[in-house]
Write a structure and sequence with these properties.
heterodimer, A: 771 residues, alpha+beta, Aldehyde Oxidoreductase, domain 4, Aldehyde Oxidoreductase, domain 3, 3 domains, 7-stranded mixed β-sheet, 5-stranded mixed β-sheet, globular, B: 161 residues, Ubiquitin-like (UB roll), DNA polymerase, domain 1, 5 helices
């Protein structure tokens, strides 16, 4: 409480600044944008997962009345793109070869969507079908055909790291266990499919509205694609119908086709993907095969972990290098681990590409490690909560730092408190001892703990900036390059400005990203917005405050440092009775001859500095680290195998300091549920030789309101030294603890171990039969 | 493929409309494209996500699941028709106040499902709320605060009467 009192705005519950626009339907998403003379575009897609393109004949499509332009990959002059300079392996539309089912090969612009679709049918493409690779283990075999001719062994990326001495540690261990786990292909899950509206206000100036959580990705990629200087590419960000990584950071065929068709026709072109296109062709979570070997002492203390990971990266590299990096580097959190070795491979196949997804990387390995921890606890006769408490990293004393064996810097760690609090909230002891089976239903409880990075530290343009403009009527405009994709960052950024300038939330107006005006920013990924853009925003507000205080100080004939601003007043720190109201101060600053324009600027370089060493797996991958523990109760139907997560479900999250507590709660509940419990129990793409057989929201089962647990959230406050106002991330970490907690709970209820997610009824049913 | 345009007469948010539409046009397309009522979102076109939920004659209906012509002569309410000028509907207010809104893409559909529920049953149990809201998929927020927000509306309106 004492901490909250210090702040007037942050730390208190606030309604979101954009909620009114959203509940009234006024918020415009990319598909809602409409311009005069606008055309509709559609993508022509390949019916083969792997084939050479011999010829594309567009003449019939071009002759269809209403068609205004057709484009193929050849129009892009050999342009290739990728996540970073060394991974440019993908074309806007495939030119010589398609590498996954329904890859785009051409596109049409027409006066309406139906005509565009009909024209796509009229495009004749001659293919030479090739055998496909759909299993990464087949693709790794000596002599396997190649998805990319210049990528031997079909290896997208690989890591081999070694910290300490695992062999020695295993030899000294009381118990060594090796298990295999698997995580499935999973949809990103946002309801808004990809959409773009592109137009060229002049022949050398491109403007797009695009459904991307990281608008500076398309800004850079489209500039290179169309050979434009950056100051001639304008990306305007509409509201975003959620972004969980992957497609909404990265590009899709339509994001290139719409600007090309707009260029050809001189008219605006809109392309809105269907949910089928989204689910069948867009990026999904990597399926990963995990072998994990763990050695512990008789008391269950971790001595060493060794992992071997094989991930199916699909047809193109995308951001797999980062995904695999994250799967490895955070094994050393949230438990003390002195020895760790990993060999990780991401493999090209002819499946749709895999990429980042909320809980990026860490979700896979935390699932394996935290389920195995329960297996170990059972073998040793130790309670699951107790074994976690014994291994959990302690919260460092203020000013002290805990370093992991791979040199991650932990300035605050509330994982012990998280574990203790969830155990208490779920009545752990009582539930563990309760009768498990009642007729055809079995009940059980499970616990898991985890950690997540705030702010992926990467090379390239990773700094963030903000501009705070003081209007002469005392209101404030805020510009940042950061994107609110639903996580609530527009509210947080505005609140930070209000806090620093002693204003109310309503006095600050944040502008959505427009690359013509807002400062460059990497985007919303890697849980980076609050820590980096928040830091930049705080600095910008402080800069504006410094400028204003010069005018205030002059009035009292003292130094600006001797004054502060709070509750809409600038006051002398030593004598609060000497003060100037905010509005008077602003007018003074704006109108005093020779007058001034108050613009505060702030840059955060926290994400730049020391970046991870990709060769050795060392150094910080985030600015700081959040910690989580989750306990879930499940109800297993022993006759059908249906598992339900009950309302006795609780998650404790250490986000350092919750800047907007209800927003942290929704983020954590959402993460724990949609990408957590849903990952544990429901979601999986089914594949048949590269074809996604359930590309719709009926057959691809996602949980609904009637089966959702009313998850309780506990805030654990640790005031991190490296985050703005002590904050750390609050979203992705919550996705990583639900799968192991739910699987452990199923074991507690029934005695079965589900090692391959998700625990769908059929899998549970057959596992129960084999007991 | 494209048949002759057909006449469509209906009431939307209390206003009568007369327009000509393709016979195969879905109601969601007519609302969004012909009438520019883009508050109704289009998510899946397979009647499974609920983002396009509107109210027809008091019932929550997914507007991608019916043809526009099937709404001929009926009374339609969309999200644009819920607030009374600047004064929001209690459901909208509760969603804001309780922090139930995240990305907001499914929000209009959910507000409309809640409206249909509360108009028919002003005092639903939590289970009835869960049942009524099951046709609206959410991706980011976990349903908890939406369910609680509807309960807050129930409590307020029941307390006031």
């Amino acid at each position: 409480m004492a901490k909250e009192e210090k702040h007037s705005v942050i730390g208190h519950p606030m309604p979101r600044v954009d909620a009114r626009a959203k509940v009234t339907g006024r918020a415009k998403y990319a598909a809602d944008i409409e311009l005069p003379d606008m055309l509709w575009g559609k993508i022509k897609r390949s019916p083969y997962a792997h084939a050479r393109i011999l010829n594309i004949d567009t003449s019939k499509a071009e002759r269809l009345p209403g068609v205004k332009a057709v484009t193929t990959g050849k129009d892009f002059g050999g342009f290739r793109w990728g996540w970073i300079g060394t991974t440019r392996d993908e074309e806007p539309l495939a030119v010589t070869k398609v590498r996954y089912m329904y890859e785009g090969v051409a596109a049409v612009a027409a006066i309406d969507e139906d005509i565009a679709e009909e024209a796509c049918e009229l495009i004749e493409v001659e293919y030479e079908p090739l055998p496909g690779l759909f299993d990464p283990f087949e693709a790794m075999k000596e002599g396997a055909l190649l998805v990319h001719e210049d990528r031997p062994g079909n290896i997208t990326t690989e890591y081999h790291w070694n910290f300490g001495d695992v062999e020695k540690a295993f030899a000294e261990s009381y118990l060594v266990r090796e298990d295999n786990f698997k995580t499935p292909r999973m949809a990103k899950g946002y309801i808004e499919p990809p959409a773009i509206v592109a137009y060229w206000p002049d022949t050398d100036h491109l403007t797009v509205w695009i459904a991307k959580g990281s608008p500076y990705f398309p800004y850079r990629i489209l500039a290179r694609c169309f050979n434009l200087p950056l100051n001639k590419v304008r990306v305007i960000q509409p509201f975003i119908g959620a972004d969980f990584g992957g497609t909404k950071n990265d590009m899709v065929n339509g994001d290139f086709a719409a600007p090309m068709l707009a260029k050809k026709t001189g008219k605006p072109v809109k392309i809105v993907y269907t949910q089928f296109e989204e689910l069948a062709t867009c990026l999904r979570r990597h399926p990963v095969w995990i072998t994990i070997k763990t050695g512990v002492t008789k008391d269950g203390i971790l001595n060493a972990i060794q992992t071997r990971l094989v991930a199916d990266g699909g047809a193109y590299t995308r951001m797999s290098p980062l995904s695999l990096y994250l799967m490895g580097c955070c094994m050393t959190l949230p438990y003390k681990l002195p020895n760790f070795k990993t060999d990780a491979y991401c493999i090209f196949t002819n499946n749709p590409s895999s990429a980042a997804m909320r809980g990026h990387g860490i979700y896979h390995t935390r699932f394996a490690a935290d389920v195995q921890m329960d297996m170990i606890a059972e073998e040793l006769g130790i309670d699951p909560v107790e074994i976690r408490l014994r291994n959990a990293i302690e919260n460092p004393e203020p000013g002290e730092i805990y370093h992991t064996v791979n040199k991650l810097t932990v300035g605050s760690c509330g994982v012990k408190e998280c574990i203790e609090k969830v155990a208490q909230a779920i009545n752990w002891q009582e539930r563990k001892e309760a009768e498990k089976i009642d007729g055809y239903l079995a009940h059980g409880v499970g616990v898991a703990a985890g950690a997540y990075l705030s702010g992926a530290r990467l090379t390239g343009h990773n700094a963030a900036a903000a501009v705070v403009r003081i209007c002469e009527d005392g209101t404030v405009n805020l510009l940042t390059g950061a994107s609110d994709v639903g996580q609530g960052s527009d509210t947080i950024m505005s609140a930070i400005v209000a806090e620093v300038l002693g204003l109310e939330l309503k006095d600050v107006e944040i502008k959505r990203v427009d690359t013509d005006y807002t400062p460059a920013d990497p985007g919303s990924f890697g849980s980076r917005v609050t820590v980096y853009a928040g830091d930049a925003t705080k600095r910008a507000a402080e800069d504006a405050k410094r400028q204003l205080l010069k005018f205030a100080a002059k009035e009292f004939g003292i130094k600006p440092e001797a004054m502060d601003i709070k509750d809409k007043k600038a006051f002398v720190k030593a004598d609060h009775s000497k003060s100037i109201p905010w509005l008077k101060l602003v007018k003074l600053a704006c109108y005093t001859t020779p007058g001034n324009v108050i613009i505060g600027k702030g840059v955060s370089t926290r994400g730049v500095g020391q970046v991870p060493n990709w060769e050795t797996g060392e150094e910080d991958v985030g600015a700081n680290y959040s910690f989580t523990a989750e306990a879930n109760e499940v109800e297993v139907d022993l006759e059908t195998g249906v598992v339900k997560c009950t309302d006795n479900s609780v998650i404790a999250h250490d986000c350092g300091f919750p800047l907007n507590p209800p927003a942290v709660e929704t983020q954590v509940q959402g993460g724990a549920y949609h990408q957590g419990v849903a990952a544990a129990l429901y979601e999986e793409f089914k594949m048949d030789n590269g074809l996604t057989t359930n590309p719709n929201l009926v057959d691809y089962t996602r949980p609904r309101a009637y089966e959702a647990p009313m998850t309780k959230v506990i805030h654990v406050i640790t005031n991190d030294p490296f985050g703005p106002f002590g904050a750390k991330e609050a979203s992705e970490g919550s996705c990583c603890t639900a799968p192991p907690a739910v699987i452990n709970a199923i074991h507690d209820a029934t005695g079965i171990w589900i090692k391959e997610l998700p625990a769908q009824p059929e899998k549970v049913f057959w596992a129960l039969k084999q007991l | 493929m494209n048949g002759e345009l057909k006449e469509l007469k209906l009431t939307i948010n209390g206003k009568p409309y007369e327009l000509k539409v393709k016979p195969q046009a879905l109601l969601v397309d007519v609302l969004r494209k012909n009438l520019r009522l883009t508050g109704t979102k289009q998510g899946c076109l397979t009647s499974s996500c609920g983002a396009c939920t509107i109210v027809i004659d008091g019932k929550a209906v997914k507007s991608c699941s019916i043809l526009a012509l099937q709404a001929n002569g009926h009374e339609v309410t969309t999200i644009e028709g819920l607030a009374d000028g600047d004064k929001l509907h209690p459901i909208q207010e509760a969603f804001i106040e309780h922090g139930a809104v995240e990305c907001g893409f499914c929000t209009p559909g959910r507000v409309m499902s809640a409206k249909a529920l509360l108009d028919e049953n002003p005092n639903p149990t939590r289970e009835e709320i869960r049942e009524a809201m099951q046709s609206n998929l959410c991706a980011d927020e976990g349903y908890v605060k939406y369910i609680e927000a509807v309960e807050i509306v129930v409590k307020k309106t029941q307390g006031g009467s």
